[in-house]
């Protein structure tokens, strides 16, 4: 999932603060999701401009990430298997 570029200075500063905090502490964040979500898990991972995504995440479906990219935060979404999705759709 690609998030949009910050639209103003304050948004950009919040992004940079979050990104720098993740890099400095060597952490990623787990996102708290509601129980009735279609997603099983969601994580935010920092990706510096001089690095490629972790090999475990490759290959991507879709356009992927260009070799030359700005610092970014990757949003990794884990979905339920098809049996769990069918339960959600039948509700």
Automatic annotation (TrEMBL):
Source superkingdom: Eukaryota
Protein's name in the database: Uncharacterized protein
Source organism of this protein record: Strongylus vulgaris
